[in-house]
Amino acid sequence: MLAVCHCRECQRHSGSAFGMSMIVPETSLVVEGTLKNFERDCDSGRRLGNFFCPECGTRIYTKPTFVPGIVNLKPGTLDDTSWLRPALHAWTSSRQHWFELPEDVPQHERQP
Questions:
Q1: CA distances, 102 to each of 43, 88, 105, 108, 109 (Å)
Q2: How many helices (H) and strands (E) does the chain have?
């Protein structure tokens, strides 16, 4: 599932209007090499591990400490992104005013 998050923290981390996360089972993700990581607080108050390439700094995935066995892959790191379609928009209460939310995708003012 692909989620688009409009919280202020995702805006800061992406340097854009929102962040995207593809929710996948941790066991299905295979990463070559060793990633670096750090933890941060989410707007919800929960903790999130952030894993990134030590060479270029690109975030590869995040790992919510509150949902065991799940990682949030950063879909912009995929070779082919043409098939991506968001399943939901979260934290729309923080969205940039100029961004038009699609009417056919579920929207949540906070985290669902």
A1: 23, 10, 6, 12, 14
A2: 1, 7
pLDDT digit string, tens, across residues 6-17: 988 889 888 899
Ordered domains of the chain (ranges, CATH): 2-94 (3.90.1590.10)
The CA-atom distances, in angstroms, between 34 and each of 45, 51, 60, 92, 111 are 28, 10, 11, 34, 30
Strands 2-5 and 88-90, how do they pair?
parallel
Q: State the pLDDT confidence band at 96, using cuts at 50, 70 and 90.
A: very high
Strand order in the sheet with 47-52: 36-41, 47-52, 59-64, 70-73, 19-25, 2-5, 88-90
26-67: pLDDT as tens digits: 999 988 899 999 988 876 778 888 999 999 998 899 998 888
Phi/psi of residue 27, nearest 5 degrees: -70, -20
